[in-house]
Amino acid sequence: MKDVFARLGSDLFSAIVFLVVYLATDNVILATSVAIAGAIAQVIHARIKGQQLNYMTYASLALVVGLGGITLLTNDPRFMMAKPSIAHFAIGAIMLKRGWMLRYMPPIVVETVPEYVTAAGYAWAALMFVIGVGMILVASTGDLKLWAFYLTVVAGGAKILAFAVQYVVLRLIVTSRRRAAARA
């Protein structure tokens, strides 16, 4: 679980930096510049530490630099605010791969209810798309406080709630099937 939150924090680092600097200074140019510099520094730091970087890391960097550049040219924060939604769409697309979630499940779940894990994987993909659409709609308002609330409370809370529901449901189904198998 700790790895999941660390990865999420890493993926949203530039958005968080942008938000913090913008809220502290009310300066779009400064916030965007610091977010771009932070994203570049994050990749350089990972390379120096010898960490394996995947294409999503480079895609995220390209989005920050590209959307940040547009934000700098237009002085409009909505472009930077759209970056997390694009990331959610990309993650959702990856989650459409059948069975992607099986490798993250304990063996007892994989052996007992693989079809439910596959269904849960598709549900996670749908959640990522819904969050992405919501984030674009919120970003289009240009209301940074509403966007910050959506990014942290709504999107973050939806993922935590989905994880909890998935855990409870899979646990109940596995327990039920194991009991039925023991009786048989």
Automatic annotation (TrEMBL):
Pfam families per record: IspA
Keyword Cell membrane: yes
The protein's name: Intracellular septation protein
Lineage: Bacteria, Pseudomonadati, Pseudomonadota, Alphaproteobacteria, Hyphomicrobiales
Source taxon at top rank: Bacteria
Transmembrane segments: 12-41, 53-73, 79-96, 116-141, 147-170
InterPro entries: YciB
The keyword Cell division is assigned to this record: no
UniProt entry keywords in alphabetical sequence: Cell membrane, Membrane, Transmembrane, Transmembrane helix
GO cellular component: plasma membrane
